[in-house]
Design goal:
Elements lengths: L10 H15 L11 H20 L10 E2 L2 E2 L1 H11 L8 H5 L3 E3 L9 E4 L4 E7 L2 E5 L6 E5 L3 H5 L1 E6 L2
Antiparallel strand pairs: 1-2, 3-8, 4-5, 4-8, 5-6, 6-7
Length: 162
């Protein structure tokens, strides 16, 4: 396994991510329906669902063209995870890159989609400079760091779809 890759995040790290996401989501259920903050609460719960769903599939085998828990390629993984949050996406990194709005790396939020390597690779940002992605044939869905040299050098950009 490459340095910086994890088969599964450590328990304390995951608790930190979920705590941060819950802080962002706040007390969404107590927001009155007439409040303009309701849209923000729904947005935050969708992001939480994207992050928690992506982490659920860490360890799933890579499968070229795959878009199901039986196996994923990178864009199939993003497609599947977003579908669980009710967002329909096309299969294909370049097609996914055309959607949403551009996000600078220093303004990433959990749930943003990150892109690399001349639009040949994508993953889902989960916070703390980490993202979940389906790597390559013979490997599995895993958590990696944006700060790893391979990803840093091949960074293309990020898109906010939620």
């Amino acid at each position: 396994m490459k340095p910086g890759h994890q088969r599964a995040p450590s328990g304390s790290w995951m608790i930190g991510v979920f705590s941060a996401m819950l802080t962002v989501a706040g007390c969404a259920s107590s927001t009155p329906k007439s409040s303009p903050d309701l849209a923000t609460a729904e947005y935050s719960s969708a992001r939480l669902l994207v992050v928690s769903t992506s982490l659920k599939y860490v360890g799933t085998p890579y499968d070229r063209g795959g878009a199901s828990p039986a196996g994923f390629d990178c864009s199939g993984f993003v497609l599947f995870v977003y579908a669980q949050a009710g967002v329909s996406l096309p299969h294909g990194v370049a097609k996914q890159y055309r959607l949403g709005s551009a996000v600078p790396r220093d303004q990433l939020e959990p749930g943003d989609v990150v892109f690399f390597d001349r639009l040949r690779h994508a993953g889902i940002y989960i916070g703390d400079a980490r993202f979940v992605h389906a790597t390559k044939p013979g490997d599995v869905v895993m958590v990696s760091s944006l700060d790893e040299e391979w990803f840093r050098r091949r960074w293309i950009g990020a898109r906010r779809l939620l």
